[in-house]
Amino acid sequence: MIRTVSIVPSILSADKEEYRMQVERINIFTRRVQIDVTDGVFAPSQTLDITDVWWPKNWQADLHLMVAQPSLYLDTILKLNPSLCILHAEASENLFPVFDSLKSAGIKTGVALLPSTYPGNAKAYIDVVDHVLIFAGQLGAQGGQADLMQMEKIPLVRNMKPELEIGWDGGANVSNVRALAHADLDVINVGSAISMSPNPAETFQELVAEIDKNGVAL
Q1: How far apart are CA 153 and CA 210, in angstroms?
Q2: SS (HEC) of the chain
Q3: What pLDDT digit, counting tens, does each position of 7-22 carry?
Q4: Model confidence at 138: pLDDT above 80
């Protein structure tokens, strides 16, 4: 059975004014957005500091932290109160205490898997979270090509915990989004295909229309 798939634009910016412009452009056509934050350590590039992150009150914000030590960001995350907070399984510290704090605050939890991470090695985290993000792009960057081999992880994660929301991050665009949508995903995060588009709203609608088509794009 094909699941209902959501196209979720993502924001990644190191500049306050560019961040504001991205928020304003996306706010026209969607309410669920993924916001990417890096620390310049876990990911080689540095985005806007998390203390400068904001979003409209009517958004369902997914906060994706590409950071080595998520616990250092916990107080700010709790103040921001995202709908979902995604941390990387490969972080340099134990994530369970952070997940517990987020859950106590009513924030959904997610774990992201880098391309080199086998889902079975992150099973302990997968067992306790609400969302798994299959990461198939470049850390801290938009505009890369999707590593579609990462789709092989989707059934492995689904078999571990069928009720999980499973997301994809990396290189999604009009040419591959239909294949991704038919791979048993719930969420497809889209970065540069929307943010670099001359008409982001139109591109968003094209992506939505594409995932509603039957069959495989040739």
Answers
A1: 23
A2: CCCCCEEEEEECCCCHHHHHHHHHHHCCCCCEEEEEEECCCCCCCCCCCHHHCCCCCCCEEEEEEECCCHHHHHHHHHHHCCCEEEEECCCCCCCHHHHHHHHHCCCEEEEEECCCCCHHHHHHHHCCCCEEEEECCCCCCCCCCCCHHHHHHHHHHHHHCCCCEEEEECCCCCCCHHHHHCCCCCEEEECHHHHCCCCHHHHHHHHHHHHCCCCCCC
A3: 999 999 999 999 999 9
A4: no
The predicted-structure confidence for 30-43, as pLDDT tens digits, reads as follows: 999 999 999 999 99
Mean pLDDT to the nearest integer, 56-61: 96
Show the domains of the chain with their CATH numbers.
6-211 (3.20.20.70)
Residue 102 CB-half CA count within 13 A: 29
Contact 115, 101 (CB under 8 A): no
Written as one letter, the residue type at 139 is L
Q: Are residues 41 and 58 in contact, defined by beta-carbon separation less than 8 angstroms?
A: no
Q: Which residues pair with 85 in a beta bridge?
A: 63, 109
Give yes or no for residue 215 having a pLDDT over 90: no
